[in-house]
Design a protein that fits this description.
heterodimer; A: 596 residues; alpha+beta; 34 strands; 24% helix; B: 383 residues; alpha/beta; 15 helices
Chain lengths: 596, 383
């Protein structure tokens, strides 16, 4: 066990985590050059394109140190986004050490700070690494100071690397061996293994990635998932090198995979403890929780004929994404679809993109909403994740909305802009700390403001420099109202949003104007109204087109004319018919583009 | 099938190919085109193609282009003589020749008349010298007027001029001025159509600034009112005539009648037995000449299925202001009205997109302005 090191990498997007991981694999000989595809660990297209890791993975690498010993380095990759903070915490819990990678030309980002705090809380040794020192703009001294000031860990002697050129990479591995403690645990005790992640494989079913804390896990062993009490028989175990290699045992301190006949990943919950049926551990590992989606949106196929394909696609996605939920929803405007639950906005975007790309579906997504606690006059409380479900005003005693604690790091030049934005979004400032050039801001913000356009706005007011991390804080009563949109006097349920009363008028106005821009002119005037209850608070009119008949048509050759009309008709098919009005997909997300 | 039909003859050369033109026309120097060979090819093409006509009477001939008036009177005469010999021309056969003012010569036009041409369609496009230049027309306002006047003096009564609107930078006043000058000529027929930028044209590659959709609509509304005030009836989307002076040849297209097209790139639509077919001929003039010599000028034959027939019938007939009858539909498409289109027609009547009067179905005034949308209702998707 003394020759095992379990570690993970904390890094902001683009700070070079994947490139560095690839270097480790290369140095340790995990793959031949031919097999070495750029950024091995991010295997999904979206992961490679966006540079975001969605699923945690692990590689087990043999490394011979200059002290003459060969170590088993287990590198546990972590999902890299605010929406996945629970998954990150479980990946970190499986490690004794972490590398904090910071781009030496940029500096510390909020998300790295949050993850570092989690790592420190979990007792990990955090080793600062300054990457991209080959860049002319690299300023290691400044960034090292920033790490000390903002995160509060010792960075007096940071490791300097360029993952791109390979400079300093070996030193990082040596540093890991000296600074990261070897795992502790009792190989003879009752089995205690932490589920770091799980995913579905078409051939073998669910593959579970675990860290063994105590005891040993072997094929044919009967094990139990302690949160559900369900029993399974271990079929295969092994490690990723990064190729999947079977082993005869995984014992205390080791990281590897377990295949044990689990049929769906919701039975292999991240953070759960696996133990031995005949020699069950007395206690579970700390930190387990059931992940609950907190952002919801309706997703509907543009063509009703695609409904079954859409459901199949959702089923398939769900196989590999336990934090995603869906149930049937019927909208008067959009027909049959599903109410989908996500961990956050990025998660929602990723799911949507995968559905459109991997399953070739034309979809309409409605504006995202959060979960509200609605206190009714009969003293009961209902949870609402869809504005259309909001009970009649006379039955509602109060609406409570989720509030988050947001941590924002921003260069001081932009701090004024960011504060203005947070206040506009009904934020309440909790803290403001200067760390050299960076300012750490803490705000309490209503999540419903954040899910609309907060990320985009934050990026634009800070020219991309602000970074952001959040945790759920509490529910708070708030004067919220449902804002409806009427197209030609017909209420369009899919366009309803819940907004703060004080903002409702300006919101209604901006929304009506935005819809006017997004909906193309039609054969008749189209009236767009925003209403609260029966009161119309804003109105715009999309003036009718005057004509669309093409003047010239000589009888001889009609093929071109026919093609043109066919093309126009195909374009319309991608729109949704609301009454006699053709509404494009983007219009349903208009609320995200409203500027107040 | 023994309904009368139309004959289209394509002459594929122009002295200059204008920036907006997407027709099968090719620029040529005067007298640098193979006139005699082409005339012979047309006659061979006609003889080969006439089998499909089965002796049906030919009610109209339209010699279009290109610029057919580039050809000599003798050439046109030879072509029309061949038509007379090979086909069963009706006694009142309308014979139109397309002309451009730039090719006008009084003597030649007298020759066209002797050859049998009894209708002229003159490509004026605008009377505004600035616009004519932008459109790359190679004639001026005076040539246009001179052509019309001389043609009238030569005894041509049935004359059409083509006029375009929504031209680059055109104002409403300028457009109405064009219309006023056209109406002042007091001709029996006027074609008034909007400039559209078509793919594969110079205007498409280097787009001029043209009036917006709304501006074009304003021009169209005002111009049509002025044309109507001048005593013309709009019988088709862009065709206006005095009483009884509709263009018989185009009317046949719009009524989804049959026609044989000969010459480079010409299209035909013919009912042969129970089959309704479209044909296309080789487009490039040079290749056409070679192909005719080998009797391979027809490069594409397409049999129309019932979905094609319904759509193409509507595409043409709904352009006519007075519309069509159920009998027209059954006769042209050989399909049963109640078994195919009747439910959809009822639906569109109920929506107010179609109207019905004295057995004729036609687009409502509103839908007539949105004919593209209305026609899409008749497109059936082929998966």
């Amino acid at each position: 066990m003394q020759y095992i090191r379990n570690f993970s990498i904390i890094a902001h997007i683009d700070h070079g985590k994947s490139t560095l991981a690839d270097r480790f694999i290369q140095i340790c000989g995990g793959l031949s050059d031919r097999e070495m595809k750029a950024q091995v660990l991010d295997s999904m297209d979206i992961e490679q394109e966006r540079g975001i890791t969605i699923k945690a993975q692990a590689v087990s690498l043999p490394f011979t140190s200059k002290d003459g010993n060969t170590y088993e380095l287990n590198f546990i990759d972590t999902p890299g986004h605010v929406d996945f903070s629970y998954e990150v915490s479980r990946s970190l819990a499986a490690c004794e050490g972490a590398l904090l990678i910071v781009d030496a030309s940029q500096g510390v980002e909020a998300q790295s700070v949050a993850n570092c705090y989690t790592a420190v809380e979990l007792g990990l040794e955090v080793l600062p690494v300054l990457n991209k020192i080959d860049l002319p703009a690299a300023d290691p001294d400044r960034v090292a100071t920033e790490i000390e000031e903002v995160i509060g860990i010792d960075a007096t002697d940071p490791l300097l690397v360029s993952a791109k050129t390979g400079v300093g990479v070996k030193e990082v591995l040596e540093g890991l061996i000296t600074h990261t403690p070897a795992p502790k645990g009792d190989p003879e005790g009752p089995l205690k293994a932490l589920i770091i992640d799980s995913w579905f494989d078409n051939y073998v079913g669910v593959i579970t990635l675990v860290r063994v804390f105590d005891g040993c896990i072997r094929p044919k062993q009967k094990i139990v998932a302690m949160s559900t009490g369900r029993n399974y028989q271990v079929e295969k175990i092994g490690v990723f090198t990064p190729k999947r290699e079977e082993r005869s045992a995984l014992s205390a301190g080791q990281v590897g995979f377990v295949i044990c006949g689990i049929k769906d990943i919701s039975s292999a919950k991240v953070g759960d403890t696996l133990s031995d049926v005949s020699n069950q551990s007395e206690e579970v590992l700390d930190g387990f929780k059931e992940v609950q989606p907190n952002v919801f949106a309706g997703i509907f196929p543009v063509n009703a004929d695609d409904y079954e394909n859409f459901r199949d696609a959702l089923d398939k996605l769900k196989l590999n994404d336990a934090s995603f939920s869906f149930e049937p929803e019927t909208s008067q405007a959009l027909g049959s679809g599903f109410r989908c639950g996500f961990l956050g906005m990025l998660h929602m975007e990723i799911v949507q993109e995968r559905l459109e790309r991997e399953y070739d579906l034309d979809l309409i997504t409605t504006a995202p909403t959060v979960v509200y606690e609605v206190h009714l006059t009969d003293n009961s409380v209902v949870q609402i994740d869809n504005p259309a479900d909001l009970p009649a005003t006379n039955k509602v005693a109060a609406i409570h909305e989720p509030i988050i604690t947001a941590n924002i790091l921003v260069p001081h030049d932009y701090v004024g802009n960011v504060i203005t934005l947070c206040i506009e979004k009904r934020g309440v400032q909790q803290n403001l700390v200067y760390h050299g050039n960076q300012v750490a801001l803490t705000f309490q913000l209503p999540l419903n403001e954040v899910v609309l356009d907060f990320f985009d706005r934050l990026k634009s007011v800070s020219r991309g420099y602000a970074s952001f991390d959040y945790q759920h804080s509490h529910f708070s009563p708030s004067p919220l109202v449902k804002l409806d949109v009427l197209i030609n006097s017909e209420r369009v349920d899919a366009l309803s949003v819940i907004v703060h009363n004080d903002h409702s008028r300006s919101y209604g106005n901006s929304l009506a104007v935005k819809l006017k821009d997004l909906i193309p002119r039609q054969m008749y005037d189209v009236a767009i109204q925003a209403a609260i209850g029966n009161q119309i608070i804003a109105r715009t009119t999309i003036k009718a087109l005057r004509k669309n008949v093409t003047a010239k048509c000589y009888g001889g050759d009609i093929t071109r004319k026919k093609k043109l009309l066919e093309k126009q008709k195909a374009g319309k098919k991608r729109m949704k018919q609301i009454g006699s009005v053709e509404v494009p997909q983007e219009a349903f997300l208009a609320v995200l583009k409203v500027e107040k | 099938m023994n309904e009368p039909l139309g004959l289209y003859i394509h002459i594929p050369w122009c002295l200059h190919k204008c920036g907006y033109c997407d027709f099968n026309s090719h620029a040529t120097e005067a007298n640098a085109f193979p006139e005699a060979d082409y005339v012979q090819a047309l006659i061979s093409d006609l003889i080969a193609g006439k089998d499909d006509l089965q002796g049906r009477s030919v009610r109209s001939i339209f010699i279009g282009g290109g610029t057919p008036s580039l050809f000599s009177a003798q050439a046109i005469s030879t072509i029309l003589d061949a038509c007379q010999q090979q086909l069963n021309l009706s006694s009142d056969c309308e014979i139109t020749l397309e002309t451009n003012p730039s090719t006008f010569e009084g003597e030649k036009f007298a020759g066209f008349k002797s050859a049998g041409v009894n209708r002229l369609s003159i490509g004026v496009q605008s009377f505004d010298p600035v616009q004519l230049k932008k459109l790359e027309r190679i004639h001026g306002r005076d040539e246009a007027l001179h052509t019309v006047h001389t043609a009238q003096q030569l005894g041509f009564e049935n004359i059409n001029i083509d006029l375009m609107f929504a031209l680059p930078g055109q104002t409403l006043e300028q457009a109405l001025d064009d219309v006023a000058q056209a109406c002042a000529l007091d001709l029996p027929h006027l074609s008034y159509y909007q400039l559209t930028i078509e793919p594969n044209t110079r205007f498409h590659r280097f787009p001029p600034v043209i009036p917006s959709l709304d501006q074009a609509a304003d021009i169209q509304a005002a111009a049509m009112a002025a044309i109507s005030d001048a005593g013309y009836t709009r019988y088709e989307v862009s065709a206006f005539s005095r009483q009884g002076a509709e263009c018989g040849h185009n009317l046949n297209y719009w009524q989804f009648g049959d026609y044989l097209g000969i010459g480079a790139g010409a299209h035909s639509k013919l009912t042969v037995g129970h089959e309704i077919k479209r044909f296309q001929r080789v487009r490039q003039p040079g290749s056409y000449l070679t192909a005719v010599a080998e009797q391979k000028q027809v490069i594409q034959t397409r049999l129309l299925g019932s979905n094609d027939l319904i759509f193409e019938f509507m595409l043409n007939q709904l352009r006519l202001r007075r519309g069509f009858t159920a009998a027209d539909f059954e006769q042209c498409t050989q399909l049963s009205w109640p078994d195919t289109i009747a439910p959809q027609i009822d639906h569109l009547l109920a929506l107010g997109h179609l109207e019905q009067s004295a057995g004729h179905y036609f687009a409502s005034e509103h839908a007539y302005r949105f004919l593209d949308s209305l026609l899409q209702e008749f497109l059936v998707e082929t998966p």
